[in-house]
Write a structure and sequence with these properties.
Number of domains: 1
Helix content: 40-55%
Number of helices: 2
């Protein structure tokens, strides 16, 4: 079964991890899921930032 990865340097989806691990987010089961990786990372970072702000109060 193929796995898909999002390459943060090329901003492209790769099938079966063709680049170095430092450049990849994944694995994902579908190309579509991998393409959404940057949005998911952004959402998670925003949620973590919000939690940090709550802890600082």
């Amino acid at each position: 079964m193929a796995q898909y990865w999002y390459n943060v340097q090329t901003k492209q989806v790769e099938k079966d991890a063709q680049s170095g691990w430092k450049s990849l987010i994944g694995p994902y089961e579908t190309r579509e899921e991998a393409a959404q990786a940057p949005a998911k990372v952004r959402e998670r970072n925003e949620a973590a930032d919000a939690l940090e702000e709550e802890d600082e109060d």
